[in-house]
Amino acid sequence: MAHSEVVLPAEFIVARNPDPDSSLPFLIRLPLGPAGVVLKARDSWPRTAKVFCHPSTEWPADAEILERVPVRRCERRGAAIDLVLDRARENTSQVVFTRIRAGREAIFWQSARTTRQARPNVGLPTRRSAGGVLTILVDAHETYPWRFSHQQAVTVRRALSAGDYGVELDGVVTAAVERKSLDDLVSGLTTGRLRYQMAGLAALARAAVVVEDRYSAVYRLERVRPSLVADGLAEAQVRFPDVPIVFCETRALAQEWTYRFLGAALEQLAMAAGADLVAARLRPAGDVAPPAPTVPAIRAWAATNGYRVADRGRLPGHVTAAFRAAHPPGAPPSS
User: Fold this and answer.
1) In whole angstroms, what separates CA 19 from the centre of its chain?
2) What is the pLDDT of residue 195?
3) Following DSSP, what letter does each residue of 20-50 receive, concatenated?
4) Rounded Cα gap, residues 287 and 184, in angstroms
5) How high is the pLDDT of residue 41?
6) Are 213 and 253 in contact (CB under 8 A)?
7) 106 has which bridge partners?
8) Domains along the sequence of the chain with CATH
9) In the prediction, which pLDDT does 2 show?
10) Can you list the residues of the chain whose pLDDT is less than 50?
11) Tens of pLDDT along 114-163?
């Protein structure tokens, strides 16, 4: 008599971990193999960072199910399991089996977003910006604003007419930065909202758009044609050349770039304002009349322009008048 194989439904299941002593509060089951792959997980989906996982011996019969999602593909490839869910968002992820310090085995659950945003191996400087310690205005509509806790800055919440972060000079906002995630950037391009935002930024003395991702991520987009986004970015940059769009790889680097940009903008604008103030205080000495043309200069011009003049004596009035008409005040001297 042949033994029948238990076939799991093609579902991805998230449950609450019933073990009160575990530091991993979730259970996930992947429909792979006869019994599936069961893991304890620190989170229910890798949204902002890689999720640490640990193998679980079995799926509890009385598990409190939090989520069931149909699976389009669940396939093991080498040291990783590719998981594609049948839903519009948060649908693609990968479970990676690896080794960390001292050869210890570890399991990380990651999405394309958290993989792209892996922290680069760089240290951020602590030196103050070119503008000194900054007071950065944060738009009141920012849901999860940057705090600039690593930088020498204080933040003040205020409604901004353009941008998410700005600095002011003499009570007027003169420089601002619009912050974008890749998803927000794509949405702004496809709906046309980004064009209006950049038009508002262009009205300021200094402004920029900073993206918390790599430019190469544009060409890995799945729900929209990468060429459409790339063309939209190029068009926006040509249309508003004074508002650069800068890709800064991670949230931390985007925050650091914004801090440095606002500091440099504030310094340059303050210097320009100081120079204008000095110039306004200078009293003009009056208009200085240009030097009168010499007779030899008029005679040489007349000879090269078809006028018959004698080598000596007084110049005819019509020749002098023609010379002055050809050389109005303020015109650059002719060669």
Assistant:
1) 42
2) 93
3) TT-S--EEEEE--SSS-EEEEESSSS-SSS-
4) 56
5) 94
6) no
7) 98
8) 11-116 (no CATH), 134-277 (3.40.50.10130), 295-326 (no CATH)
9) 44
10) 1-7, 335
11) 765 555 556 666 677 776 789 999 999 988 888 898 888 999 999 999 99
What are the tokens at 84? 């594609």
The β-bridge relationship of strands 80-85 and 26-30 is: unpaired
How many CA atoms lie less than 13 Å away from 279 in the CB half-sphere? 6
Q: How far apart are CA 313 and CA 12, in angstroms?
A: 106
pLDDT at site 45: 92
Structure confidence at residue 156 (pLDDT)? 94
Query: Is the CB of residue 26 less than 8 Å from the CB of residue 39?
Result: no
Dihedral of CA atoms 224, 227, 229, 232 in degrees, nearest 10, equals -140
The pTM is what? Answer: 0.51
Q: Give the pLDDT score at 311.
A: 78
Q: Which tokens sit at 284? A: 């003009």
Give me the phi and psi of 300, to 5 degrees please. Answer: -65, -40
H-run or E-run covering 277: helix 251-281
209 class by beta-carbon count within 10 Å (0-12 exposed, 13-18 middle, 19+ buried): buried
Report phi then psi at 273, rounded to 5: -65, -40
Distance CA 251, CA 217 (A): 14
DSSP SS3 for 196:
helix
Residue type at position 164: D
Task: Give, rounded to a whole angstrom, the gap between the first and last alpha carbons of the chain.
Answer: 108
Sheet holding 245-247, edge to edge: 153-158, 134-139, 165-169, 172-180, 206-211, 245-247
Among candidate residues 281, 3, 309, 255, the one with its CA nearest the CA of residue 129: 255
